Amino acid sequence: MAKKQVKNKKPSQRWKMYEVKDGKLIRKNPISPKEGAGIFMAVHKDRKTCGKSGYTESFSGTRSESPIHCQDFKKIFDLISSKTETSL
Predict the structure, then answer these.
(1) Which residues have C-beta within 8 Å of that of residue 76, sequence separation ≥ 6?
(2) How many structural domains does the chain have?
(3) Which residues is 51 bridged to in the sheet?
(4) Among 24, 44, 65, 69, which has the highest number of CB atoms less than 10 A from its own CB?
(5) What is the pLDDT along the chain (88 residues), one digit of tens a residue?
(6) pLDDT by residue (tens digit) across 23-32?
């Protein structure tokens, strides 16, 4: 039986997401507001994105055609629920 070719794997580079100053651990990337501590957001030139949940924050003032963000959905839900309570 022939030997399988071994692929060279890149080692994990999580150490790049942290920095130690004065004996304290500092996180370099922003933390995902939807997932919580330990899940970082990727920083692109025009947005910040969570790879686990898909949450996206845009840097520009205008939003492009994108799915409804979690915060927007909560505002819409609160608005709808307040209108239905007043009509009852």
Answers:
(1) 68
(2) 1
(3) none
(4) 69
(5) 778 888 888 888 878 878 899 999 888 888 888 888 888 888 888 889 988 888 998 887 544 445 555 556 666 667 677 765 555 5
(6) 998 888 888 8
In a domain, 63, yes or no: yes
Q: The tokens of 52 are what?
A: 């686990």
Give CA–CA dist 55/35, Å, rounded. Answer: 9
How many whole angstroms separate alpha carbon 45 and alpha carbon 29? Answer: 14
- The one-letter amino acid code at 9 reads K
Strands, sheet with 47-50, edge to edge from the N-terminal-most edge strand = 41-43, 47-50, 56-58
| 55 falls within a domain | yes
pTM over cut 0.85: no
Per the structure, the complete domain to which residue 55 belongs is given by 36-88
Q: Which of 63, 70, 71 is nearest to 46 (CA)?
A: 63
Does a structural domain hold residue 60? yes
Q: Enter the DSSP assignment of 23.
A: T
